[in-house]
Each structure stands twice: as structure tokens, then as C-alpha cells.
Design brief:
The structure holds two protein chains of two kinds. In chain A, strand 6, helix 7 and strand 7 form a beta-alpha-beta unit. Chain A has twelve helices and nine strands. In chain A, 51% of the residues are buried. Chain A has one domain: P-loop containing nucleotide triphosphate hydrolases (Rossmann fold, 3-Layer(aba) Sandwich), CATH 3.40.50. Chain A is α/β, with parallel strands linked by helices. By secondary structure, chain B is mainly α. Helices cover 57% and strands 5% of the residues of chain B. A two-stranded antiparallel ribbon of chain B has the order 1-2. Chain B starts with 9 loop residues before the first helix and ends with a helix. Classes of the chains: A alpha/beta, B mainly alpha. The A-B interface holds A 181, 184, 187, 190-191, 194-195, 198-199, 201-204, 236-238, 240, 242-243, 247 and B 6-9, 11-12, 14-16, 18-23, 40.
């Protein structure tokens, strides 16, 4: 199964979500490949590894994908990216069937993994469309503010265009991130999101400074702060845990067994 | 035209409810907020009891300088223990029963407190006065 993590808006928690889900699923003994489509190359950086032009070599030099994969943790491999991905995008614009470039590349390794996660760049470029074409499921992280929610609508319009060509991922859900229950605005935006997307709105990820600290040590949140709110969710007045990545990982793991 | 009800993920629905409740608490004065929080942790029940029993519990609470709730809880706990050990028979072998047909449509029976027990309670109350 291929899951694209995408939102054209930047700073909504796409890379954090992709890395956290990838490592979370790997810890559940799933074989996971995480593909970085962002020129910033933050997937490798978040896992304490060097940025390398893996995606560039794949698209421009035609290197077989298996030669480009790096093992980041037990059960977790990455296809890294760096600023040369920008040049790869320029090369792609002159290629035929460019929107199928990722589908073709990932088909070579699809059977080696239980799940392939694609961390998309914050833009609506050719790689973004290629990710929507290659994926089976689309997960859209969003901050709970008006502009970010507009970004959700934009990506869903892109998905609708891909669907109109008979291709593309199923919409798995919107993942509210940076959920801060202290501010009334956050709750109001969550309600607004629910009014539009109903049960496609997934339990939110609480705001947590541990997410900012973990990459400084080259660790994922599972290694740096596994008991944090961001992982375990926030405690409700009924003393139950709500939201957090642990619950989301379980939900996706369940989806994999269907 | 009526709007179709939107289905919501149960965790998200609980989170919104929780947030609304927290915001409601935040708008209260500190005293009211503290009282509401305290009330939330309490478990309360309302029962119809004979006036003599209510008076007896009040009198014991005054004498022992404690709350009526704690007296009621203690006596009920002892009563339940007594029932569990077979000390209270709702129906005995001779067919003598504490069960009386109820006039309520909700219940088939009511349980009658033995007149001897009520008399003992009255005597005990007289010693407290």
C-alpha cells in the first residue's frame, strides 16, 4: 500500500507526520519505505542521516531504485532527497508520462514493503501530481487555521483532477496538527473542518514542543519522547487519551490488514 | 429542507465536547469553577426514604460530627454486607415476605421495612435526643 502525505501549504507537519508514521509502523514490524519528494531533504535529516540526491539519481540518471535506498532504522528504509530534486523536477517537465514516474519507480520495490509513505513537498508541482497518481491513500495534515484549511481544499481539487483521469489515491482523511485546546480558535476551526469533511477528519495531533526538539538529536518522537502528548494524545476530563500519533499508527496498521 | 446529519469520528466528537466543556469552565468565576470541578468527581444518587430513616441519619451525623453522606454510605455498606451474608431474607421458607405488590407501573414489588425494625430505630433515636 502506498500512502501520500500531502498539503500544498508549508509548515503543517507533513514531514513530521510522514517520519513519525513511518517509524511507528516500522516498530510494529511492518516493512516501511519512506520517499522524500521535498527539496529540503528533511526526512533524512529528521532521522539523523545525511541528505543525498536519491530522487535526482532516480529520475535524471535512471539509477535503479533499490540502489538508492538507505536503511534508517530496523524495518525502515528511505529514498532521500536534497536540493538537486529541483533539477529533477525541471527534467521531468520535458518527459512524457511524467505523472507516472513515481508509479513506475515504486512498482519495482512495492512487493518488498508493507507500506510506502510519500512525503510530498509543499507545492502543486509535477512530483506532487505523480505522488497522487502513485498512491493508494491520501493523508492531508493541516494546521487548524483558515489558510491551512484552504490548502486542504486545494489538494482535494488536485485529487479530483487526477480522479477524472481514472487515476489516483483514495482520500484517507484530514489530520489536524498543532492542536491546541487552550485556544478557542483551534476548536472553532476543528468544528469548521468537521462540518466540511465529517468523519474524514481524523483525531488531531496535539501541539508539542518535543516534535521540534527530536530532530536536533536525529531521533524520531518514538525515540525522543514516546510518552509525550504528541504521541499518546491529550488527557480528556474523563481521563481518556484523545488523538496523537500512536492512535493514528494503529488506525493505518489496521488499514494495511484489510 | 433539513440538513443531513454529518457523521463524525467518535474521538473527534469527544474532543470537541471536551473542549467546549473546558471553555465553559474558563468563563466561570474561580469559585464556581472549583465547585463544578468538585461536583464532577462526585457520584450522587437520589432515593426516596422513610422520614424516620432520614432523621436517624441526620442525628447520627450530628452526633459523630461527620457528613450525612458518609453515614448513609457506611450504613448502606454494612446493610449490603449483611444481605450478602444472608442476614436479610427478602423471602423466607415459610413464605413470609418483605415484598408487597407495587402500585407503580415501573416496578412489580416494593420492599417493606419490618415494623419491628422501625420501632427499634425509633427507640435508638430517643437515646440520641
Amino acid at each position: 500500500m502506498i500512502v501520500a502525505v500531502a498539503n500544498q501549504k508549508g509548515g503543517v507537519g507533513k514531514t513530521t507526520t510522514a517520519v513519525t508514521l513511518a517509524h511507528g509502523l516500522a516498530r510494529l514490524s511492518k516493512r516501511v519505505l519512506l520517499v522524500d519528494l521535498d527539496v529540503q531533504g528533511h526526512v533524512a535529516y529528521s532521522l539523523g542521516m545525511m541528505k543525498t540526491p536519491g530522487l535526482y539519481r532516480l529520475i535524471v540518471l535512471g539509477t535503479p531504485v533499490r540502489e538508492l535506498l538507505c536503511q534508517a532504522r530496523p524495518n525502515l528504509w528511505i529514498l532521500p532527497s536534497d536540493k538537486q530534486t529541483e533539477a529533477a523536477k525541471r527534467t521531468l517537465t520535458s518527459m512524457n508520462f511524467r505523472e507516472r514516474v513515481l508509479t513506475n519507480a515504486l512498482q519495482q520495490v512495492c512487493d518488498d514493503y508493507d507500506v510506502i509513505l510519500i512525503d510530498c513537498a509543499p507545492s502543486l508541482d509535477v512530483l506532487h501530481v505523480a505522488a497522487l497518481v502513485a498512491a493508494d491513500l491520501l493523508l492531508v495534515p493541516t494546521r487548524l487555521d483558515h489558510l491551512a484549511i484552504d490548502g486542504v481544499n486545494e489538494i482535494l481539487r488536485s485529487l479530483a483532477e487526477v480522479h477524472s483521469a481514472g487515476l489516483g489515491a483514495q482520500f484517507f482523511g484530514v489530520l489536524p496538527t498543532f492542536y491546541d485546546r487552550v485556544t478557542r480558535e483551534t476548536t472553532e476551526q476543528l468544528k469548521a473542518l468537521v462540518n466540511v469533511f465529517g468523519d474524514k477528519v481524523l483525531p488531531p495531533i496535539p501541539v508539542d514542543t518535543k516534535f521540534r526538539e527530536a530532530p536536533l538529536y536525529g531521533q524520531t518522537i518514538w525515540e525522543y519522547a514516546p510518552d509525550s502528548h504528541g504521541v499518546q494524545g491529550i488527557l480528556s476530563m474523563k481521563e481518556t487519551r484523545l488523538g496523537g500519533y500512536a492512535a493514528l499508527v494503529e488506525r493505518i496498521a489496521k488499514e494495511l490488514t484489510r | 429542507m433539513t440538513e443531513r446529519p454529518m457523521s463524525v469520528d467518535p474521538t473527534v466528537a469527544e474532543l470537541i465536547k471536551d473542549s467546549n466543556h473546558r471553555q465553559h469552565l474558563r468563563r466561570m468565576t474561580p469559585d464556581k469553577r472549583q465547585k463544578t470541578r468538585r461536583d464532577m468527581t462526585r457520584s450522587k444518587a437520589t432515593y426516596d426514604l422513610p422520614p424516620e430513616i432520614i432523621e436517624a441519619i441526620d442525628a447520627i451525623a450530628r452526633k459523630e460530627e461527620c457528613s450525612v453522606s458518609s453515614v448513609a454510605a457506611l450504613l448502606l455498606a454494612h446493610g449490603l454486607q449483611f444481605l450478602a451474608l444472608g442476614g436479610i431474607k427478602l423471602e423466607d421458607k415459610d413464605g413470609k415476605t418483605l415484598k408487597r405488590n407495587s402500585r407503580s407501573v415501573r416496578f412489580r414489588y416494593t420492599l417493606e421495612i419490618d415494623s419491628e425494625i422501625m420501632e427499634k430505630i425509633r427507640r435508638y433515636m430517643a437515646t440520641l435526643a
